[in-house]
Give the backbone structure.
Amino acid sequence: MYTPSLLSLDDFPVGCLVTDARRRVLYSNQYMMEQYGHSPAALAGSDLFDLFSRASQILCESFLVPALARDGQCEEIRLTMRTPTGHSLPVMVSAVHDEACQRCFWSILSAHRSEHLFQKLKQTQQLLEQKVTLLRSLSHTDPLTGLPNRVALSKHLDRKIDRARPGSEGFALAFIDLDCFKAINDRYGHETGDKALAQIAMRLADTLRKHDLVARFGGDEFVVVLDGRFSRVLDEPIWNRLTQRLTAPLAIDGVSLSLSASIGITFYPQSSTLEPDQLIRQADQAMYQAKLAGKNQVCLFDSDDEVVQKERHAALLSLDEALAGEQFRLFYQPKVNMRTGEVLGAEALIRWLHPEQGLLGPQAFLPVLSNTPSGIRLGRWVIMTALLQMQTWREQGLNLSVSINIDGYHLQHPQFLQELGMMLADVPEVAKANIELEVLETSAIQDVAQAALAINACRALGLKVSLDDFGTGYSSLSQLRDLPVDTLKIDRSFVQNMLTRPGDLAILKGVIGFASAFECGVIAEGVETLQHSQKLVALGCEAGQGYYIARPMPADEFPGWVERWTQSEFHQKYGAHEHGI
Amino acid sequence: MLNKTSITARNNVTVTGDGAKTLVLAHGFGCDQRVWQYVVPALSKRYTLVLFDYVGSGRSQLSAFSQERYASLEGYAQDVVEICEALDLNDVHFVGHSVSATIGQLAALKIPERIASQVMICPSPCFLNVGPEYQGGFERADLEELIDLMERNYIGWAHYLAPLVMGTENSDQLIGELSESFCSTDPIVARVFARATFFADYRALLPRVTHPALLLQSQVDSLANPAVGRYMHARMPQSTLQELPCVGHCIHMTHPDIVIREIDAWLGQAS
């Protein structure tokens, strides 16, 4: 082991310096001479900081000296050393004080290696910056169209709503859905479809001002956000411009495509505070209205409409509660042969025994139920209740035919037949032929073929099917051809007007004729007077129901009515006139 | 609004000592209020001391930093103004080190009624050499190299990668304290402060500030040479210049006794 006295500081591969409290050089080793050209003689007594560049001196004063004063040492500060020949060299400087702060010991190392590493680190940092920028832009960009995507849209709206101040000008948000775009994919392939989307995207971007935003929301849906105050009317020129740009033909690979779009628009701000998602939903709803209204048009979101929606929702809730609370009742209205007096059966009619408003007819609550899950639930309850009633009557010795109203949308429900089968299985003794399904709102049936399948299946089960309100609705005639039914029910409006209006009489005659031609039965509803009955019988329609015969009544009153009717009432109402008694 | 609590948190304001006279101690570039640690024990016995960190330095709230505001010394002066107003400080003796001497002058022009006098430690109104009539000591290229060297010393690099990866929009999550290491600053913040400090020329302020001022000049100072002190003294109406037998730019750290003595003398109280 060497003893320190045998060693010289000149042997170490590091620049060594000692300075006094005024930072004047007291000692420097040989390495300072060999490596940097600063001879001990030249350095002796000079200001150490003069060895460094001016910038290095600022670092020394601002960082190194405070660290020395505080900690007594400073490690590895990167400075630039100046050589006597005017060169600049990167060096790594460390320093430590003695306890009395009278002397300071310095080591000065070449920083070439650390400089090299720093360069690499800088490159890596720049690369990382580029990648992060790229990633950030990718996560906000739709790859197909290059437009901002849904995430970017959401952030954009967040920012806009966040920065909106009272009195600032606000913006319009348009939800654009291309009409029948699927057909293009189906017919020309997805590649063409994608090209069409890209072109549409470019058109939208070109139509807008620089600070407006167009984003691809998904599939063939785009969202446009336009800054500014807009008159909240449809004839703003921008909406026309958008529509025109979207409908101009597209040329893709030699194929000319014509597209159109349904556009829903909403505005910000509104009277209540809104989340970005709500705005998009509003515009989406308005777009849906544009689709319903025949596509290729613009609809404005109506916040009043939203109020209606809320009321509707509340109404459905209360109807669900009424069903759960067993507030619905079925009333039965007799159907008779107006010539012979024979009781043909009864029609089950729904009533709501409202806890506050009393007995409500179907017009008070059926419209809101149309095409809703609540409507389907109530429809099921009607069928089951009527079937159970038939069973009860049967046990009482009354084998009545009962017609049960079915809404068109219920008939088309995928589970309808299965559920009907299960309900029928619960009442095995009820004769199937006594069960008649009266299909309501047939004009709302869109898929006639599917409805026909359902009707055929019901008939195959042995049930009868009739079309309610026949003669109203524009598609009745073709339905008569396509829907295989047993009976047509003549709407009350024709019956009530037939005595005064030749047109109604003509239709009524026509319906009776059709029924005969299609070999199905016919029954008239709304028979309110003896004259109605007489006219109908004269025209060949003997079956009828209406207030003249009997009002709808609770189930337990029905057997008593049947007895009274057959005993005396028919004769009182019809006998003297029809039979000439 | 800016109240006492929020300003105190933003600028990490510390009030210590008691005495009728109030001293606001303002650190210079590269450091924070801890540079005053060698003078605080003595001064706090006689004066009320208000210490703080400029936004972007020390334990200030980084979230309050704005490149726009702090790109010029006026932004830092606004910190001083807001601290004086929020704490309702009056008859303030403003002790500013280096660039803070200039910042103090800017503040004094805004709230002259609150300022009683200034003590300028190693001040310089302009670090650049401007023509033959003024030698601030540095060429523009020197100061560009400074920015570069700061980066090569990884000043503030600890704060560099996180915001890059997390995204600038998440910078709020990085709020709060800067790294604990001495004199550390955020890289962007440090660069902004460096540019505001070293590239500025506030010589025109000198005759405009009429408060009494004490200039403490170090005999050997790479940043502010004695000629700069004399230049300032010649142009400041109510100034007193003391050239001290000191070496270096941080004389309040390296020669605290001398600085304390000068401050006491200036405030008329022998130590």
